[in-house]
## 1
Amino acid sequence: MTQSLNRIAAMTARYYYILRSSSLRLLEIIYWPAMQMMVWGFLYTYLYDSKSAMASTAGLLLGAVLLWDVLFRGQLGFTFTFLEEIWSRNLANLMMSPLQPFELAASLMAMSLIRLVIGTLPVMLLTFVLFGFNVFAMGPGLLAFFLNLVLTSWAIGLVIAGLVIRQGFGAESLAYSIMIVLLPLCCVYYPVAALPLWLHPVAWSLTPTYVFEGMRAVLLDGTFRTDLMIECLALNAVYLGVGFITFVALLQSARHKGGLLTMGE
């Protein structure tokens, strides 16, 4: 157990040193979330100042953007850290070492969390300074939202990593596109009721839907929906397990096919 923790810590430290060694990498983590927040923030300001019919709910935009970015950046942080192993042609070396798949996955999760904190905290501060929106006004529910979105991002990241191992660079585009596909169905900017009835089961099968419905309940009604968060956590446990099993299965398949030795070529 101690050796396993040491290997996880060593891999996480390696990824952290790579990130810390490049100021451009750090800037990129903060830049895109900040630009997105400024665009939506100025729209929020316009709606509020114009006293439009949407002014009373305009704050939902900023809350939704912040939470969506947690999900999106969490997945990108996991996937990009893994892709760096592919780009450097180092994956085969790792798999020939004592490092186990769950240890690699754990280190990727840890690095995803580090990248997420680096990118999210400055944006939260920017949102408060420029637009007066305090994300911590969501109260203790914010921690539940954050936890569930991070778990979802890891589950998706595991599947993408497995597909890249098995299918090669043909699956690399999923790192950028998969979250965009899910965006309309996760009800980020509108309630589930806005979807056609036949899409409701699909929306409720996606864990981010529970988070964004919970966020709207907090900001509009001042009510924290514990039931939604418990259901979301249960679904995340299932999806995370399925994601890890998929990752290991695709890794083993690539080993049998000899794909690890040609990865990156």
Note: The radius of gyration is 20 Å.
## 2
Amino acid sequence: MLAIKILLLGGLFMAFSMGLPPVSEAAADNPRVAMETSMGTMVIELYPDKAPITVKNFLDYVDAGFYDGTIFHRVIPGFVLQGGGFDAKMEKKENQAPIKNEADNGLRNLRATLSMARTQQVNSATSQFFINLKNNSNLDHGDRSFGYAVFAKVVKGVSVIDKMAGVKTTTKGHYQNVPVEPVFIISAKREKAAEKQELKK
């Protein structure tokens, strides 16, 4: 029993030190989104306890079907995948109002985490997000910069983001690192309770 307790405490320490929510029963209640893309499906777990404004914003777009048919318009291997704002013609979709930046929530831009994309204005994020392909500590909240708000993580289908990272890119207009062949978000939907239970087995 002592050995088990030590292992559990060690796991909690690792979670806190890496800037991720610790494993707990509460985590089972975290909303999840199944994002089907043209290169595979990934499951994204959101952290409303750490980033309530950002999670609500993301789920509002999901529930409205906003992301369906959009593309990952920026692919930088070894850095990030960015999407959620443009269609295949590189035309920007109309967004809701910008939200408050929650980058100071203690979560870090680790591999497979999702953060909100924004302009140089701190509180300018709308629908666009990015997925970290590696640990990007330079994007975290700190003295140098307010940072980018982490609000979720890919918990299933991480191989999909690695596959996306390998696509050929080009420059379209004034946009760089755009996939030559569009990488679509076919659909983004909240995961049903039954599907969540299946994942836990």
Note: The CA atoms of residues 110 and 135 lie 4 Å apart.
